[in-house]
Amino acid sequence: MELSPLITDLALILIAAGVITLIFKRFKQPLVLGYIVAGLLISGYLAAYLPDSIGQYIPSISDSENISVWADIGVIFLLFGLGLEFSFKKLMKVGGTASITAVTEVISMLVVGFAIGYLMGWNTMDSLFLGSMLALSSTTIIIKAFEDLKLRGQKFTNVVFGVLIVEDLIAILMMVLLPAVVLAHASLGVELLESIAKMVFFLVLWFIAGIFILPTVFKYIRKYMNDEMLLIIGIGLCLGMVVLSVKTGFSSALGAFIMGSILAETIDGEKIEHVTKPIKDLFGAVFFVSVGMMLDPQVLFDYAGPIVIITIATILGKAFFSSFGVLISGQNLKVSMQSGFSLAQIGEFAFIIAALGLSLGVTSDFLYPVVIAVSVITTFTSPYMIKYSGNAYEAFNKILPARLRDFLNNYGSGSKTLNKDNTWKKVLKSNIFVILIYGVILVAIAILSVTYISPFFQENIGGWQGSLISVGVTVLIMAPFLSALLMSKLKTKNFQTLWNDPNFKKGYLISLMLVRFLIAALIVAYVIFMEYTSKAGLIAILVIFVIAFTLWSKTLQKQYTMFEERFLKNLNERSESKLKKEADVSDLENIHMDTFDIDPDSPIVGKTLAELEFRQKYGVNIVSIIRGDQRYNIPGGNMRLSAWDKVVVLGTDEQMSAFQTEIEDHSITPPEKEEDEVVLQQFVVEENSPLLGQQLCNCTIRDKSECLVIGVERDDDVIMNPDGRFTFKEGDVVSVVGETEKVRALCCVISE
Predict the structure, then answer these.
(1) Residue 608 carries which DSSP code?
(2) What is the structure's pLDDT at 538?
């Protein structure tokens, strides 16, 4: 029996990727580089440059077309995973700094990349794709570098993460616009605008439909879903959106990203991300290995000069333009330079855009390996750029003229007004949101009417009667959304404040209302005009519509309010669930203890536990303080910390990580692990329990038993660190921590 080349090639890819990435992991190098090297080794290029006596023993891929299919699937799941990590609400919160920086960097590097390609004699498409690939930084590499250097949580890292969120969205837009440019390069103007408008329309429509429908559906079927069902449904929705995206003229990657971002807003988004991660990692590895297989060593030698030029331009250009973007957005010079140096590399999106150029047949064969080589080099330089960005700032700050130095360092405080929203901006923003959302819905209904509703009634009824019924049904469907477009957000506090302000020009507000009215009128007129071409019929229908709309306005307001409330409820379901549920049930299962030494130079020495508020800030509990030969278990809030104390801390992985990150700034380092003398125990509040109906503050568990209640499971909720007003109910599962014997004694008292 002979195996299919698809299976043997996949086996070779995964084995090579596993072995090489283990080596890279050992030397603390990014896994992406390991995948690329693995692809180079099994591509056949390496064997061709070696003597036959050696090359014949190096296995290589037998069918590259099959691998191309696997790689396409890899791109789909990479973008689906990116969508699950992405959030449109996050995008709204990144602020002006991230948006200004991302746009500045992308536009500048597009121009730089195009100019380099043009000056080296490359054709227009090679230069355009080169600029697109250089414009985007690598999320994977930056996150890895920040973790290795323990920089997460600093001010400049938050700026960088915001920039990466905006760049992810720009990358998706590029993947839509580049094919449009390629297909319409002879007449870029109208066709490109049509592609942008079409993309915005479908993005908004899919997002509205997804947020309105999917969370509601998940709510009803959640009780039937386990991890297996969630995996199947998640992947099915992803691939379904991929098919829909391709059918409407967009890329498969866009469809995967959109479905991921929709599911990310649901309450099950985090769980879907968890169950689909192994599949994303598997096919992502295949994609990056396929990238390495495209790397011809001979091309690297032939284009060594361009590779060096592009690499230098990438590092210097991205560092400069990113720093400039952060600076003009209102940050000081130090934060700007640290942020800019962190963004000085290209990564995974460069590979995807390069593959897009090859699939469209518009880029030269040499461009792919050249960009991969630049990415590999900048991946190695990136940690050093981040690490020494502070030193670069100090050196640069010293050589600046005094006036310029003062201006740049004080620029941030003077430019904060860039991010300040006044009342008018808030009103304008809310009105644009209403116009975009309800305008897209109404246009979609109009298209649905012309495509399906009108032909149906013309075929079955015909004549003016069929046209009248078709228009009536369409307007009936549109009615609540027309009402929302005309009246929503016009009675808000901000709008009324401006309307009643004698110093504010009411013309702006009236213009907003007129724009909304004109859009509504044009959409309704389009539907009617498609059925009635005579002026008399058109006027009659419009008069009837205005009268009916006026009489029915209160009912319409109720309908669109219900729609809006459902949409917002689904959109905020995940965040509200997190607020309601202070911790997941699994938190109690993952709870553990660790011990930290307090350095004598730490500023927390001499402070009481009440002053430090570790429990309130991080959710952790101080269960013991070891001072010399003395051990103080379940210490009170008045206990002061001394130099060389050992602090035993209890919490979940996430809580301990946040606690340790902050504590490291106070020079507390974890000592060698020693055996804990406190234990975590659970008991159930039974019908005859003395705790039943009692508030925690009245039970004196901490004072009498010297034990600490750290959590209570009630039904499907977990209350972590309950306060003194918490009242026990029958069936509560109470988690306490304390010395072994004292915990046992407490449990005995409770169970009596």
Answers:
(1) B
(2) 54
